[in-house]
Amino acid sequence: MSFLRVVAALLCAGLCLTPAFAHRHRVADVGPDPAAIRPAEILFFGDSQNLGYFGAQLYRSVSAQIDPKTGHGLSVWGYWVCGSDVDDWLTGGKTYCGLRVCDGAADRCAADYGPQDHADDVRYDAIAAYAARVHPRLTIVSLGSNLLTWKMGEFKGDYASYMAGAGRLSDAIAKGGSQCIWIGPPQIALNAKPVGVYDRYVADLGRAVTSHGCTFIDSNPLSDRKFVLRSDPEGIHYDAAGERAWEHGVWAALRPLLLARLAH
After folding, report:
1. What's the whole-model pTM score?
2. In the chain, at which residue ranges do the beta strands (DSSP E only) sit?
3. d(Cα 100, Cα 88) in Å, to the nearest integer?
4. CATH number, domain at 217?
5. Which residue of 23, 129, 180, 190 is 20 to 30 Å from 219, comparing CA positions?
6. What is residue 105's predicted lDDT score, i.e. its pLDDT?
7. Structurally, how many domains does the chain consist of?
């Protein structure tokens, strides 16, 4: 199946508002079957930044590691939802533009879903519901790009609430008994937000989550806005070369943190 990572941006351009889509825009419960969710050492969740090479390769890299405590390979349960953000993962949400579930078995991603497969929205639960079944020792969060796509007035109006929500999400992860590593969003196109706005945002996001127990990996020095897809009107998604470079930098920072956290 071809997974269209920029379909969310196209929807924001008005695609889903046309009459042809309106009568088909329902809600379907086709998210992961709770009974099929297996325990894993790592829970990895996030937004559409993870639906391409970046998330797939990071998932493989983590899965290939040996658990320093048990000497066995790590199992990873991954769940990435297009358009999702902190409030969605706190309370549950719905998506039209795609999701992916990877169940930790031999790099198997068993539940890709996109608008080509079904016309309905997909409902998903709060992350606490999945963590209660996965029982992770460590949770990797890759989240934060979507607020940067909002118009400046809305962005500023929701800014403080968003940072508070990021803190609550970090608390929810800790309440479930898991350690937390949060990967911040990569650099975005200049027509999405000015450099200074992005720089302040990722710095504030880092402070918000670290003050609530998560370790923060700042993607600002690990990414380059020159790789943003010209076809992406949101200005947040990278081409293949950019995703490879970003993943390489993030993995170099994540691996030692991951192994150190799991050793205790």
Report:
1. 0.87
2. 27-28, 42-46, 76-81, 93-95, 99-102, 121-124, 138-142, 179-183, 215-217
3. 16
4. 3.40.50.1110
5. 129
6. 59
7. 1
